[in-house]
TrEMBL record:
Keywords: ATP-binding, Hydrolase, Nucleotide-binding, Transport
Taxonomic superkingdom: Bacteria
MF annotations from Gene Ontology: ATP binding; ATP hydrolysis activity
Membrane-spanning residues: none
ABC transporter domain ranges (all copies): 2-250
UniProt source species: Albidovulum aquaemixtae
A GO cellular component annotation in the UniProt record: plasma membrane
Signal peptide (residue range): none
Protein name: Lipopolysaccharide export system ATP-binding protein LptB
Coiled coil, from the record: none
Enzyme Commission number(s) from the entry: 3.6.3.-
Gene3D superfamilies per record: P-loop containing nucleotide triphosphate hydrolases
Length: 262
């Protein structure tokens, strides 16, 4: 699905992504972990067209998509969510979902004047689909709530719902659990698994909650200092000496090992 080849993104002399290479297989839920500053979100931003790479390539199903803008990638089925949810706060939850599909008839003045029936029918269909999405995510009771009134976890569910309005192929989720209580995080995790198994979505997930990563993801890719450090099943990754050192630092790692052997 997604192949990243020797990707670099430099900001002046700072190498945020420094020669990262990885593959995200079709139909997988791939975890991307690493300490703060490892380059994970920058990598997402380069893949999703938010940043232009300094060098390297990104392929999607064999097609070179390096540097394509987000709206072009959107039409190809590649979507990216953010650590801080971006909702239209004054609009209802249902209306937020209905805004997602591109090229709606009501976007042109001609249709607004002469094809009001077409617009009305299209909006009824969008509302129906939005209600299906809300039901899937178990938040139908929030359909008419203003999005700005939602909790952090509910906003993350809304962002996930947006991807369902366009039948995304691959979704990059950036810290979906940030600021989310455990109950809602489990709901989000269940929705991701269902979208993967029932609708064939491919996911790549940045997350610091290793219980969440372990429940959802295989494989798990570890980044440190802009490079890929390790890859494998979650249980093996957390036993990897290089991964432990990247997260804890050598001094703390040695202290833990010494205490374990005492």
């Amino acid at each position: 699905m997604i192949t990243v080849e020797d990707l670099h993104k430099h900001f002046g002399g700072f190498r945020a992504v420094d020669g990262a290479s990885m593959k995200i297989a079709t139909g997988s839920i791939t975890g991307l972990i690493g300490p703060n500053g490892a380059g994970k979100s920058t990598l997402f931003n380069v893949i999703a067209g938010v940043y232009q790479p300094t060098s390297g390539r990104v392929l999607m199903d064999g097609e070179d998509i390096t540097g394509l803008p987000p709206h072009d990638l959107f039409h190809k089925g590649l979507l990216r969510t953010f650590q801080i949810a971006h909702e239209f706060s004054s609009m209802t939850v249902r209306e937020n979902l209905m805004m997602v599909p591109a090229r709606q008839s009501g976007e042109t003045l001609w249709n607004a004047w002469f094809h009001r029936g077409r617009i009305r029918n299209e909006e009824l269909e969008l509302a129906r689909k939005a209600d299906e999405v809300l039901d899937f995510l178990t938040i139908s009771h929030l359909a008419d709530e203003r999005a700005g009134n939602l909790s952090g976890g509910q906003k993350k569910l809304l962002e996930l719902g947006r991807t369902m309005m366009v039948d995304a192929k691959v979704v990059f989720l950036d810290e979906v659990g940030a600021g989310v209580n455990r109950t809602l995080l489990n709901t989000i995790g269940d929705a991701i698994i269902r979208l993967n198994k029932e609708r064939g979505y491919t996911f790549c997930v940045i997350e610091h909650d290793m219980d969440f990563i372990g429940k959802l993801c295989d494989p798990v890719i570890v980044m440190a200092e802009g490079k890929v450090l390790a890859e494998g099943p979650a249980e093996h990754i957390m036993e990897n000496e290089a991964v432990i050192e990247a997260y804890l630092g050598r001094g703390l790692k040695n202290k833990i090992k010494a205490e374990a052997g005492a």
